[in-house]
Amino acid sequence: MIKRFNACILKIITLYLGIPALIAMCLYRFLPTILNYPPNSIDNTFQLEFDGITYTQQYILLISLIVSCSLIILFIRAYRIHKLLVKLDKPSNSKETVVNILYKIRRFCYDTPYLLYFLEIILPLIFLPITFIIIKAYPLTILKICLTYISFFTLSSVTSFVFSKNEFAYIISLLNEEYPEIMQKLEQKSSLKRSKIKSLSVKLFLQFIPLVMVSLIFLSLVGYVQAAKETGDVYYKSYFTTLSDSFNQSFNSTEDVEKKLSETTLLDDSHQYFIINKDGSYQASDNGVLEPFFIKYVLNNSVAEGGRTYDYFCLDTEGIALKCNLDNGDYCYAGVRYDTRQPKFLKMILVCDFLLFAIILSILIYVAHSISTEIKTVASRLKEIASSNENSINLNKKLIVTSEDELADLSLAFNQTQIFTKHNINQIRNNQSILMEQERLASLGQLIGGIAHNLKTPIMSISGAAEGLSDLIKEYDSSIDDPEVNSQDHHDIAKDMDSWIAKIRDYTEYMSDIITAVKGQAVTLSETQNVTFDIEELIKRVNILMKHELKNAIVYLNISVKTDEHTRIQGDINSLVQVINNMISNAIQSYEGKTNQTIDLIIEQVGNQLHISIKDYGCGLPPKVQDKLFKEMITTKGKNGTGLGLYMSYSTIKAHFGGNITFESQEGNGTTFTIILPL
């Protein structure tokens, strides 16, 4: 179990490392495009001059920071589950301890995927803004990067959640295999205490909403960036046409360049023209500040980009800077700096996102509710059937099919199952009636056989006593006129007659006891009577009915009562006596004619159950018989047995007492049958 758990945890760790790494590799080159980075900016070595850390290093650092938080939580949960599994393997654990451990493991396996799922979404919302504020990034930069990274981690978390949930479900399935009864009870208990947060509709909502948000964020960013690029293209083409004609000459000084720039018509009041010297010094038309990154990019890349230059990452600020040659052999860069941001377009995108999100949210809530309702209908109907007893069960209430999808298939399957179950129940009831009739016939045969066995000897003894009395009467009649017979002889005859009469009286009392005992047995042939009786009464009836058979076989019944003889039992005493006697008879036959053998009848209370054990030391049961016992009518007596006795005994204990019969047998060393009755 622990080895399988470790293998599952290793797979989960691989998932939480591999999936983010795979998505991160795909996003590495795609991210600068979404965020509108300057061309080739992530490969420029001068990035270190501004950030102190490269784009690649930033990327890996942020991803590792958040992924490591998820892994730490995963390791903590895995360690706790591992400790519980180790504790579970201890043989000294009580049943209550095992239940508590299994409950905790089950809860951890269910909750951990959801915990990691929410952490991977929430943590970026916390760490990313703080990180970018610390490095003094620009507000727009923070917004765009945070939205992109949050989308990335949301996509990663959803993917990891789906796969990890399956692995944790596998761990729960392993527990179900080893502890089926306890896990079933825990599942039923959990279903009663299930909160609305864990409902199917909420789960669908929480799992799909992040994906909707991811989609909207990506579409919004791509749309906004594309609009900014198109705006930049328009400005660039316009200024390039104007400036390329103006600067197609040599200038005496930078003052002449500035004069030429001042004659240029700006497309927007917010735009500014500038002159940047080769040493990095500059002057601007509005005395504004040029970002160091902008200046650096102009000096390093503007010529290669056709004069197009860019400001810092994600700032949506561009410019055109053309090289101007001076008469003294020196040169400078002159151009216009313009803003490509589209605030109105951004507002429109956000409004559309909000409206679209609201629409999708409404649709998702409706769909989740619809799916949940249809499944609840099937589940509630199944619960109704499960909670019904045999007599009140209703299998005629069909579910209404309102669609043609998988949920419709579920409803149709349920309706078909009802029909099939109804047919099987009717068939079982018919078979049960047949078996009950067979049981009655078998009981009748056993009853008649028991009466014959038990009454044969007293009847023969009474017959002998009657003949003896007849002889004494004849002797007495002939002695009346005999002068040699005195009064003492008459007294002796009377004494002998009294002795025979006493024997007849004993035998008639014995017969009366047998008739009293079997009177109730005869009632079971027509109907079952549930009464309250004690162990003392039970033992008395067993002794009376089995006395003759035990005596004839010369087998001794040792009765050991390890509880109060006045312990009360609810049920049909006659059926129970019949079952016990049947097992004692089987035990006698297991000795195969050997005499002076022993059978142990042990009655003891175990918790809230009464255990009645019939133990013999005979031939035992062959393995092939043990496998089929109680499942079908099977016998070891050849043609002399029908196999009905034990089969019916098992059915009787199940039906009349709600109990069970177990057995332990070793071929050649005897068999022990234990009747388990609830008290």
Task: Please tell me about this protein's structure.
With 679 residues, the protein is an alpha+beta fold. It folds into 5 domains: 2-194, no CATH class; 230-346, Beta-Lactamase (2-Layer Sandwich), CATH 3.30.450; 351-421, no CATH class; 422-527; 528-679, Histidine kinase-like ATPase, C-terminal domain (Heat Shock Protein 90, 2-Layer Sandwich), CATH 3.30.565. Helices cover 66% and strands 11% of the residues. The chain has helices spanning 2-34, 47-51, 55-88, 95-134, 139-178, 180-193, 200-246, 254-262, 292-301, 343-387, 406-479, 487-523, 535-553, 573-590, 623-628, 644-657; strands spanning 272-277, 282-284, 308-310, 317-325, 331-339, 531-534, 555-561, 568-571, 597-606, 609-615, 660-666, 670-678. The strands form 3 sheets. A 5-stranded antiparallel β-sheet has the order 2-1-5-4-3. Strands 7-9-10-12-11 form a 5-stranded mixed β-sheet. Helix 1 packs antiparallel against helix 3 (55-88) and helix 5 crosses helix 6 (180-193). The longest helix is centred in the middle third of the chain and has 74 residues, at 406-479. The radius of gyration is 48 Å and the shape is rod-shaped. The two termini are 37 Å apart.
